[in-house]
């Protein structure tokens, strides 16, 4: 089933059940607490909160989203992406858990024809109602798992609507990981659809440490179904980059690199193919919605994605312009569904060409120094790349810290973060002071850097024994990464 059919079937199904189709909001949101649109419910938040009367009791949309929280996983897993289309159905007090669960099960098993025997469900550990409703729908008890708040309780990350959630997962088989359900392996048991039961109002706090300060005016429904992931299942491909949404872009990269994509198990080469392909799509959509490259805020998100795409393509051996070529393919593939890509075709090409040309100068200088340092470390049997090298590359040559870390990881090394944070031997406190030593989150905004006051966004998570113990953060202005405690 092609992606256009997946979208159409979703809208036909919910349209027949009284849902009004609402266009996607731009990636640049009206909400000042959000850097970029990251969920289908963003534009509907006033309706959930009772701050505005919804024009319709039920809605449906396909929302453009950008999230960089999993950027380090893009290309390394089969399912992660920075840009994605989120299909969603919404109820503003009109129906709640029973209907949302029944709709989801019917659409998956009868509409999209997914094998019920391969579907698993997770519910919030204290949500007995959801558990009971999934059993009524026909899901066996041994394929329903109760998980805690980190997995099955949803909020926007700032004060606002929240509530328990329930997720539908698809078992891709033993070739993708271990048995045991979603609680054990997220690659094998891939999350496809998240049903959020909006019922409460959260207050200010860090991470999951916040009070629930009251209930919403009316219990409501917010769902998110990832188009990329569902397309991969329905089209029988291994990764999101091999669906009809991205495969033509991947093919163009193969042509530019003069080598074939080696498949899911191709190591760093496969990772590079997938990351460059996926990031090119994100770049095209961000520019189409008016984001321009910069050193802070949204502009740095765009610049970082573009630079990662160039770096990965150079790793594959592409020496000429690559991002203009890949974004042009994105426009060709998705322009009919997203006309803003066609309207901004020339701007996308211009931005991609200008930024890639500038970054190439940085890359050539930095790569020579980095390759030499990595070679010395490997030859000397060391496991760490000296932090002084990473600092010099960043501070003197403007070479992004995350690219140093990626290159080191590909060679089996890790960057000596402690020495990097110290600024290297002989560095004064002032010279290293722009590196984040700690971060804090505002009560109504994103992470901020206490050193410079600019945005810092989560770029990944750190795990110990399966639990999140910290958040990797990138400061836009400082262009440095640290780990903040969870």
**Percentage of helical residues?**
25-40%
Low-confidence spans: 423-446, 450-455, 458-469, 475-480
The total of beta strands comes to 16
Overall 3D shape = globular
Structure in words:
By secondary structure, this protein is of the alpha+beta class. Helices cover 39% and strands 22% of the residues. It is built from 16 helices and 16 strands. The chain has helices spanning 3-15, 45-49, 97-111, 128-137, 149-152, 227-234, 247-257, 267-288, 297-315, 323-334, 339-343, 345-379, 387-397, 401-410, 417-421, 429-432; strands at residues 20-21, 58-66, 83-91, 119-124, 144-147, 153-155, 160-171, 189-202, 212-226, 384-385, 414-415, 440-441, 447-448, 456-464, 467-475, 481-485. The strands form four sheets. Strands 1, 2, 3, 4, 5, 6, 7, 8 and 9 form a nine-stranded mixed β-sheet that branches. Strands 14-15-16 form a three-stranded antiparallel β-sheet, with no helix packed on it. Strand 6 (153-155) and strand 7 (160-171) form a beta hairpin. Helix 7 packs across helix 8, helix 8 (267-288) packs across helix 10 and helix 12 (345-379) packs antiparallel against helix 13 (387-397). The radius of gyration is 23 Å and the shape is globular.
Concise synopsis of the structure shown:
The protein is an alpha+beta fold and 486 residues long. Helix content is 39%, strand content 22%.
Summarize the SSE layout with pairings.
Blueprint: H1 3-15, E1 20-21, H2 45-49, E2 58-66, E3 83-91, H3 97-111, E4 119-124, H4 128-137, E5 144-147, H5 149-152, E6 153-155, E7 160-171, E8 189-202, E9 212-226, H6 227-234, H7 247-257, H8 267-288, H9 297-315, H10 323-334, H11 339-343, H12 345-379, E10 384-385, H13 387-397, H14 401-410, E11 414-415, H15 417-421, H16 429-432, E12 440-441, E13 447-448, E14 456-464, E15 467-475, E16 481-485
Helix pairs in contact: 3-4, 7-8, 7-10, 8-9, 8-10, 8-12, 9-12, 10-12, 12-13
């Amino acid at each position: 089933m092609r992606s256009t059919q997946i979208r159409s079937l979703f809208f036909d199904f919910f349209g027949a059940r009284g849902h009004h189709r609402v266009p996607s909001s731009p990636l640049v949101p009206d909400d000042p607490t959000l850097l970029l649109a990251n969920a289908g419910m963003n534009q509907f938040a006033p309706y959930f909160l009772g701050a505005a009367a919804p024009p319709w009791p039920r809605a449906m949309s396909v929302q453009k989203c950008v999230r960089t929280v999993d950027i380090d996983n893009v290309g390394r897993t089969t399912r992660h992406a920075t840009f994605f289309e989120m299909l969603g159905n919404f109820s503003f007090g009109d129906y709640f858990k029973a209907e949302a669960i029944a709709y989801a099960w019917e659409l998956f098993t009868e509409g999209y024809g997914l094998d019920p025997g391969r579907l698993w469900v997770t519910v919030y550990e204290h949500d007995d109602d959801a558990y009971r409703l999934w059993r009524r729908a026909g899901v066996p008890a041994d394929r329903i798992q109760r998980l805690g708040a980190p997995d099955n309780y949803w909020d926007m990350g700032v004060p606002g609507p929240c509530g328990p959630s329930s997720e539908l997962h698809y078992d891709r088989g033993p070739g993708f990981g271990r048995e045991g359900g979603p609680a054990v392996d997220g690659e094998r048991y891939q999350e496809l659809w998240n049903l959020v039961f909006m019922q409460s109002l959260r207050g200010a706090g860090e991470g999951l440490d916040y009070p629930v300060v009251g209930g919403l005016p009316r219990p409501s429904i917010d769902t998110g179904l990832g188009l990329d992931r569902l397309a991969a299942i329905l089209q029988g491909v291994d990764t999101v980059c091999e669906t009809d949404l991205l495969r033509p872009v991947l093919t163009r990269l193969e042509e530019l690199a003069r080598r074939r994509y080696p498949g899911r198990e191709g190591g760093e080469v496969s990772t590079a193919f997938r990351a460059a392909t996926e990031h090119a799509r994100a770049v095209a959509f961000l520019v189409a919605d008016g984001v321009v490259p910069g050193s802070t805020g949204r502009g740095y998100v765009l610049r970082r994605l573009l630079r990662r795409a160039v770096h990965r393509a150079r790793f594959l051996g592409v020496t000429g312009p690559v991002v203009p070529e890949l974004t042009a393919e994105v426009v060709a593939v998705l322009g009919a569904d997203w006309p803003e890509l066609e309207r901004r075709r020339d701007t996308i090409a211009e931005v991609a060409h200008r930024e890639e040309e500038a970054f190439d100068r940085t890359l050539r200088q930095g790569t020579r120094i980095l390759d030499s340092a990595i070679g010395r470390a490997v030859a000397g049997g060391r496991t760490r790349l000296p932090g002084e090298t990473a600092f010099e590359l960043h501070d003197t040559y403007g070479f992004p810290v995350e690219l140093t870390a990626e290159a080191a990881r590909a060679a089996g090394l890790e960057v000596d973060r402690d020495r990097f944070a110290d600024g290297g031997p002989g560095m004064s406190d002032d010279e290293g002071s722009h590196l984040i030593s700690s971060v804090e989150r505002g009560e109504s905004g994103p992470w901020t850097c206490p050193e410079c006051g600019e945005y810092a966004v989560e770029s990944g998570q750190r795990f110990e024994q399966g639990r999140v113990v910290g958040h990797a953060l990138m400061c836009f202005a400082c262009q440095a990464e640290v780990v903040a405690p969870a």
